[in-house]
């Protein structure tokens, strides 16, 4: 391991210096090979991939001064490489959170029997009922829902529906309207109490 401070080693890595433990690849040079450079054409092996050699500081400077990126290119290839937007004309995938194609839209599906739409509406209605929210955006308390169940009213009933249902239940349970039958007095009291609560509720005001 190097005895140099971490900050010095990090600075060296920024400039390309690596402690390879190899001597400079230039024949006769005894300096350590700390900089990686491409191998000359005649010294590359037959397998694919980049071929590297390790050079000392002086020899890598000499290599950089004589390096020609355009060596071996035709005039057309050089002109193409020098274009300011070279490479940007290639087709790339659209950016997304997971690098995949966007999901299909509902408009892409044919649903002649409204099977998808009906199922969706059913699920929305159930979710709305579970969340105690009416179509008008107002929420019902647990007590509101309990009293509406006593009167057998739907969650979206309005004030007119409440009064109509109350009148119907009074005629059904009150002794004056069912031949003096007093067996429904407990149900009658429950309906009167439910109506008294609901008519003061926010959703029916």
What is the name of the CATH class of one domain?
Mainly Alpha
Q: Give Rg in angstroms.
A: 42 Å
Could you please say which CATH topology of one domain applies here?
A: Helix Hairpins
**Fraction of residues in H or I helices:** 25-40%
Q: Unreliable segments (pLDDT under 50, ≥5 consecutive)? A: none
Beta-strand content: 5-15%
Shape: rod-shaped
Oligomer: single chain
Largest sheet: 2 strands, antiparallel
Let me know the average pLDDT: 76
Structural class computed from helices and strand pairing: mainly alpha
Question: How many angstroms separate the termini?
Answer: 82 Å
- Identify the strand order in the major beta sheet: 1-2
Order of helices and strands: HEEEEHHHHHH
Task: Provide a count of the helices.
Answer: 7
By DSSP, the count of extended strands is: 4
Question: At CATH's second level, what is the architecture of one domain?
Answer: Orthogonal Bundle
InterPro entries: DnaJ_domain, J_dom_sf
Protein name: Molecular chaperone DnaJ
Quick take:
The longest helix has 16 residues, at 115-130.
Q: Any descriptors?
A:
Helix Hairpins, two-stranded antiparallel ribbon, 205 residues, mainly alpha, two-stranded antiparallel sheet, 4 strands, single chain
